[in-house]
Amino acid sequence: MGTVLITGANRGLGLEMAKQYSNNGWDVMATARAPEKAEELNAIGNVQVMALDAADETSIAQFAAEIGDQPIDLFINNAGIYGPMDLDRSGWLDLFAVNVVAPVQLATALKDNVARSKDKKMMVLSSQVGSIAENDTGSMMYYRSSKAAVNQAWKSLALQWKDDGLTLAMLHPGWVKTDMGGPQAPLSPQESVSGMRQVIDGLNHDQTGTFHNYDGQSIPW
């Protein structure tokens, strides 16, 4: 076991990740915009709750400075938003700031921390709807575009950092019963996170830059 850093961990998939990794003996660093209000997250044992607002560049810089040179075996960028339903320039840009720019800024800031570790893995929670090949409805254009963009960015980082020994991958959690997924979703957070953890555990360095479903199946671009 090692140290895992999970962003957006105050609810949903991030909270379930914190629970499962803590229960399996990992040292967990978990972020929330308002740590003092993240009661369920704070109640988990062996979890260090830290402040981070992914939409705020200053917050990202302060967060990285607080971590210092601590090794991080596994970085999971879970934080994300759904964004606007209709064309809204400001909302679309805010969506890209959180879903695309922030993960890349965080990965860049934490690169040396991950490189110092044993596992050297960085994951970003993407979505199957970010696959251009599988877009057969044209719906959710704004959210889709942000996930397609973060996939491209993460793949670029994977190639740039391959010689440094880092393994990066994109994960689709499935359609999950969360605030975003809604109560009609077929998967529980427990099922989704358990599956993603198996995928992460099984990833080797030759698979850096790949895109996987929570059940291990590869997703086309």
Structural features, described:
The structure is a single chain. This protein has helices spanning 12-23, 39-42, 57-67, 89-115, 141-160, 189-202; strands at 3-6, 27-32, 47-51, 74-77, 121-125, 167-172, 210-213. The chain is of the alpha/beta class and 221 residues long. Strands 3-2-1-4-5-6-7 form a seven-stranded parallel beta sheet, sandwiched between helices. Helix 1 packs across helix 6 (189-202), helix 3 (57-67) packs parallel to helix 4 and helix 4 (89-115) packs parallel to helix 5 (141-160). The two termini are 32 Å apart.
Task: Provide the fold topology.
Elements: E1 3-6, H1 12-23, E2 27-32, H2 39-42, E3 47-51, H3 57-67, E4 74-77, H4 89-115, E5 121-125, H5 141-160, E6 167-172, H6 189-202, E7 210-213
Parallel strand pairs: 1-2, 1-4, 2-3, 4-5, 5-6, 6-7
Helix pairs in contact: 1-6, 3-4, 4-5
